[in-house]
Amino acid sequence: MNIIETEVSRRLKGLPHNNYPSRIVLHHAEATNCTVEDIDRWHRGRGWQGIGYHYFVRKDGQIYKGRPDYTMGAHCLHNNTNTIGICAEGKYMVETMPEVQKQAIISLCKSLGIKDIKGHRELNSTDCPGRNYPLEEIRNAVVNGKASTSTTKTAPSATSDTSVRDKIGVITGNGVNVRLDAGMDGAILGSVNKGDKVTLWSLEGEWYHCYSLYKGYNRCYIHKDYVKIINEAAISKPVQTKQETWQVNINGDIIRELQNELNIQYNAGIKVDGWAGDITIDHLPVVRQGAKGNITRIIQKILLLKGYKLPKYGADGTFGEEMKAAVLQFQKANGLSVDGVVGINTWKVLLRA
What we know:
- The chain folds into 3 domains: 142 residues, 3-Layer(aba) Sandwich (Lysozyme-like); 70 residues, SH3 type barrels; 109 residues, PGBD-like superfamily/PGBD (Muramoyl-pentapeptide Carboxypeptidase, domain 1), CATH 1.10.101.10.
- The radius of gyration is 21 Å and the shape is globular.
- The longest helix is centred in the last third of the chain and has 15 residues.
- The strands form 3 sheets. A 6-stranded mixed β-sheet has the order 1-4-3-5-2-6, covered by helices on one side. Strands 7, 8, 11, 12, 13 and 14 form a 6-stranded antiparallel β-sheet that branches.
- The protein contains 11 helices and 14 strands.
- It has 353 residues and is of the alpha/beta class.
- It is 29% helix and 16% strand.
């Protein structure tokens, strides 16, 4: 499979490393004839840094690179984190996808090794990727290795129950496998023992999606039979009014600066009001050593405000050894996972008063 690099993709290689994909989102361009350069131009016209998709597939089956896989996309509201966006040339509310284009998308999805595949309309209020887009055929071919037919129904995808998010689960057995993906065929990352605790993200069918226990991975899965949720009432997120949430923000000006940067980089559509509500939280990227830019600089400003020292470089917008040491110190002091990575849990504590 050949993926074509152009000036568009080469220009975007300097974007931050803040995406750890676990889902593919499929789109159509809603244009009968267009190029990767056209989409890049349209997206830059919205004030974005460039094309919001990671890949663009033309009707002739040629695949073009967009954003780097390691950079958060700008293609699906509230779902740009940890996803890969693939856009198909075409207007599939009225057109029919050529077979060569469909097969190219299937091959691309398979090469990415991700089986959680959604159409844009399954995540946002939109018609994209169009009623004629062969979504089920593509998904079934990638997940099950065969195309769906009129007499074969695709097994429904496991629903994701997010009511368990941020709750604590205690492991009930010894030597319980921790997997990279849900299912018995998921790669084994390690194991946990009775009494170990994990923080839950969601329940996907028979498997708990947990915050990663292992450096270098953004997720892990444990079978629900070996996890018991504890103190549910005590650890459920409190319902807060806007005023109450405002009272725990560290600084309204910094929150506004952060919101503005999220809108610029990821087309987040966040109201710049200085209030770190759910929409802002949902768009926060994972930031780790090597990252550069304004979001890194904002984290540095927050660390400095909280009394953590950056004596050599200050808030220079570069996540180097000095900043990592400050993040590690902050995580240790606040009972967080001490990995030097600013993930969602670290963000939440950073944004508290």
